[in-house]
Amino acid sequence: MTSITAQSQITLHFELALEDGQVVDSNFEQAPASFRFGDGSLLPAFEASLLGLKAGDESSFTMAPEKAFGAHNESNLQRIPRSQFEMDLEEGMVVSFADMSKNELPGVIAEIGEKDVLVDFNHPLAGRTLTFKVQIIEVEESA
Fold it and tell me: What is the domain-level CATH number for residue 97?
């Protein structure tokens, strides 16, 4: 039976949960996901945890924030004048911004003041320890 290597095409079910057990994402009730190892679709530390697993294997592993979506970075909090928003705002809503290169950059409205709005540009899972659970369905060596 083929083990997962850096050249593998992998089909799997996965679950991503927070420390308190709250499931953030899962495809166990859906079709399995497929990806090529190293294609950038998964976090490098998640991929590294799959090395050596075979079809039929189930595994669970915990990832510290530094290995997952990074630590929460205070410099990713920005105050923006409320006058720059042409919409009704609510705390927790995600707003799309453009960076200097015109790339889309999502930000979460963290706080709404009278004159400015605090926007959090950290990944929503930054600073969180995550638990990944996987069930390997198929492993193929890619050319």
Answer: 2.40.10.330
